[in-house]
Design brief:
Blueprint: E1 8-14, E2 17-22, H1 24-35, H2 43-70, E3 74-81, E4 84-90, H3 95-130, H4 132-152, H5 160-173, H6 175-200, H7 203-230, E5 253-254, E6 261-262, E7 281-282, E8 289-290, H8 304-309, E9 313-314
Parallel strand pairs: 2-3
Antiparallel strand pairs: 1-2, 3-4, 5-6, 5-9, 7-8
Helix pairs in contact: 1-2, 2-3, 2-4, 3-4, 3-5, 5-6, 6-7
Length: 315
């Protein structure tokens, strides 16, 4: 449902974030450049226009990633593909952290809007006649930036606008119900986009509608799982070192050796069925793993061989 490293080319690494470019981006680039050749006197301007689009999307996704890191989350990968870009961000499970991680992307486009608008206005006073290619280029980039900003702010999950709505609702109705509401709005948005795609006979809008539909369904399933998790009892006296959430109480961890479920905090990271010990314990809230001693309680020493042989896995 989201682009991954598979079929992607690693371009570079910046600030600990790996940037990947999906192979299909090149096919769409050739199609779009050839389709708009009449807009300029030279195809080089078309290439520059597409590269500028690439750069704007890249800045947008880095806005997400760096903001997520600022609030203590994890963001190590960005994948660019024909439908835009995806920053794989995992902010702490708090509405404020999620809101900032998502809102920072559109804010990049907001920052770019004034200088691009100024250049367009400046060019309209004389540049359109003396430098028609440069003026058309700046105007196209300005239009693209505003288009990306407006589209991303549509309140349709999983677009940025839909996720911002979800984060705001999270403050009032909790994470599970807020995600449920956001995905329902997303399904309505999918229906509207599908009608719009049929009306314009647009393949790309239809493809975007399918992408949103798949991710809305994924979000709905996640919302149901979160609702079930919120009903589970918590264990006082412990807290995840990464997100500070108290762990669940009950046999929801599974031993990698005997495959039986157990409560790792009740047995202090030791499987009560086979005696296997585990060097780290996973938090089901943020997904990160830390030694159980870091959760707020001492744990017996674990041998080096056990550290390398066994890992806790989710039940």
């Amino acid at each position: 449902m989201l682009p991954t490293q598979q079929g992607s080319i690693r371009l570079f690494r910046f600030a600990g974030i790996n940037l990947f470019l999906h192979w299909s981006w090149f096919l769409v680039a050739v199609y779009e450049i050839n389709n708009r050749r009449t807009d300029y006197s030279s195809v080089m301007w078309n290439i520059l226009e597409y590269l500028a689009l690439f750069f704007i999307i890249l800045l947008h996704e880095f806005g997400h990633a760096l903001a997520c890191r600022q609030v203590g989350g994890t963001a190590n990968q960005i994948v660019l593909w024909p439908l835009g870009g995806v920053a794989y961000v995992s902010p702490p499970p708090r509405p404020g952290a999620t809101l900032w991680s998502i809102a920072a992307g559109p804010l990049v486009n907001v920052v770019l809007a004034p200088p691009l608008t100024f250049l367009v206005v400046l060019g309209s006073t004389g540049g359109a006649d003396s430098m028609p290619n440069a003026y058309a280029f700046v105007r196209a980039i300005c239009f693209v930036n505003y288009g990306l900003l407006i589209f991303n702010l549509l309140p349709v999950y999983p677009l940025d606008g839909g996720q911002i709505v979800r984060a705001l609702l999270w403050f009032a109705i909790g994470r599970a119900r807020s995600l449920m509401v956001a995905t329902v709005i997303g399904f309505i948005g999918v229906a509207a986009l599908a009608v719009f795609a049929l009306w314009l006979r647009s393949f790309w809008i239809g493809l975007v509608a399918v992408f949103i539909l798949l991710n809305c369904w994924r979000g709905l399933v996640q919302a149901r799982l979160l609702a079930r998790a919120d009903k589970l009892p918590r264990r006082p006296g412990f807290a995840c070192p990464s997100c500070k959430a108290p762990p669940f109480r009950g046999p929801i961890w599974r031993c990698a050796k005997c495959l039986k479920a157990f409560d790792t905090f009740e047995s202090m990271a030791t499987c009560p069925h086979c005696g296997a010990q585990f060097p780290v314990t996973q938090c089901f809230e943020c997904g990160k793993s830390n030694p159980i001693s870091d959760w707020g309680a001492p744990v017996p020493a674990v041998s080096a061989s056990l550290r390398s042989d066994f890992n806790s896995t989710v039940a």
